[in-house]
Amino acid sequence: MRSRLSTTMLSWVITICLLAFASSKPCDNEGSNNELLLSLNKDLLRSLGRQEGLPNPSVHLALRISSYHNLAKESEHLIRLNTQLHNDIQNSLSSSPSVVGLLALYTLALKSSCYDLNTVTFTVSDTSETLLTHLKKQMEKEKERLAYSHRPLTNYYQYSLGVLALCTSGIRVNDHVSNKLIKAVEHQYLKQGDAECIDTYAMAGMALQCVKDTGFHVRNAAELDTALDKIKQKLLASRRADGHIGNEFSTGLAVQALLAMGSPVAECAASMEAMRTDARSNTYHNPMAISQILPALQQKSYLTVKNKACLNEDDTLVLEPIDPVVVLPSDTKVSVIVEVVTSSGEAALYSVDVAKGSSLLEALELLKGREVGFMFEKESSLWGPFLSVVNGEQARQSDRRYWHLSSDGTALSQGINDFKIEAAQKITIKNTSY
Ligand code: B12
């Protein structure tokens, strides 16, 4: 009798526990997901204060399409974009063959702040024209290149950014310009070297979806639909078992594109979970990476800027002071072999011991200081320092070459500043064409 009673009681207790667990779990998840979003948002906001070089338009864009704001800090940043970045682009317009990507990101950033784009002008050779006129002209130059080559002056990622920026600003994109992107999707030209570039497919998806939504592109409506379908299939087929689409750094753009192209949120749930896991393990410490994943985690895409009204915005995001974390170099040393392979195929080997956890950049600087014949130079970019010259040899983007980085034969998914050396390994720096 007593044992029957206790069994009944036990099953009651278990049932109550299970019910409590089942009803609390989704709420707990939601709470911790919101906390994560806020923390990423704050990380981006904090990065504004640390920016050494030019203000970053991609970070501005992500802050502006977020649901949470610190309007004072965003306004300050807008002024910096409008002066410092503006002047930099003004200088590049007359000296560089194309600045279409940066011009497009600048346009998207201003648009996300509801800035009147018709009042923004650049003066080149004593002629003043609006930002949007310059962007249209740059796209024409890119398109002209495509008449005799299947690659634009820059790359299809920037070409897509250009289409997206014009389209979300309410400018009718020339049919010939969008057709070139449609053809590139059809012929599978959106590649980085031999591999398909997921980031580029994602950006092309957002650009072409915007063009479709305007309803102007009627002449080749069927081809436009086929290209959009192909992009969607490509993104879904690149989904790995762990949820990432491409790699950790392309998943944000891929999810943005899928949502923009009408995929239900549930279809992206595993990819969003993969990004949340990455974020919790601090994979996204580069502000540029956060700027590409945060909209996706908020179930938004860059297309949102098109209808942004900037009215009644939240203004609750505050930055609590944080104690500066001093990371002392580890006492443990690890050996790194650095192999440099020049364009002629000649290889040179160097070795250096570095504190565990050092960045590759720190290792290269240490090696350079040893005066063993190893030298390098870097250029700044939105993602941080880009390795441009090694042992006096420049891998020029104008020749479609770059210094490719790999560790023990596996390509690095981060650059010299973000990649940390945790164990002994061989780093290969190879002059490669793309
Ligand atoms: C195109 C591209 C390239 C081209 C750029 C040249 C060209 N004209 O096409 C090439 C092939 C050279 C390239 C190289 C690399 N890339 Co790349 N690249 C891109 C891509 C698809 C678009 C960049 C772009 O045009 N942006 C638009 C313009 C307006 O912004 P920008 O900052 O001014 O663009 C310049 C820089 O971004 C720079 N750049 C390109 N890649 C990288 C990577 C790093 C780490 C840095 C610091 C700079 C940099 O070249 C761009 C053109 O001049 C992005 C995708 C993305 N999600 O952003 C990946 C991306 C930025 N690249 C990436 C990586 C990992 C690399 C490499 C480190 C790969 C490797 N294993 O060697 C190398 C850089 C090595 C070095 N020498 O320092 C990652 C960076 C992730 C991270 N956390 O840092 C991204 C996000 C792709 C991904 N999903 O993994 N890349």
UniProtKB/TrEMBL annotation:
The keyword Ribonucleoprotein does not apply. Residues 357-432 form the Transcobalamin-like C-terminal domain. Residues 1-24 form the signal peptide. One of its GO terms (cellular component) is extracellular space. One of its GO terms (biological process) is cobalt ion transport. Keywords: Cobalt, Cobalt transport, Disulfide bond, Ion transport, Secreted, Signal, Transport. One of its GO terms (molecular function) is cobalamin binding. Disulfide bonds join 27-268, 167-210. It is found in: Secreted. Cyanocob(III)alamin binds at residues 154-158, 199, 247, 292, 403-405, 412, 434. Belongs to the eukaryotic cobalamin transport proteins family. This is Transcobalamin-like C-terminal domain-containing protein. It comes from Pleuronectes platessa (European plaice).
